[in-house]
Write a structure and sequence with these properties.
Layout (H helix, E strand, L loop, with lengths): L8 E4 L1 H8 L4 H16 L5 E2 L9 E6 L4 E7 L5 E8 L1
Amino acid sequence: MIPRPRRARIAFSDSAAKQLDTITSEAELHALDRALVVISVDPDAGELLPGTAAGPQLREYADDFERVRLVYWVTALKTVVVVAFIEV
């Protein structure tokens, strides 16, 4: 049996958790779930956003079909993806 790569663990910032609490539509939750699966399987899936080396390297994952956008950063060990912004 070939071992599967480990998925990144998703953690939400306080502001993202508040945004998550406002999502009530089943379709929006499904779309968000699909986007979270993508970045948990491949944390580098999003586009690197311009910034400075002083802070975390922010990435943006956008799925135009599902109409979801996530801004996140990946920890140094690439085991945790922290979502900083959710737009569904």
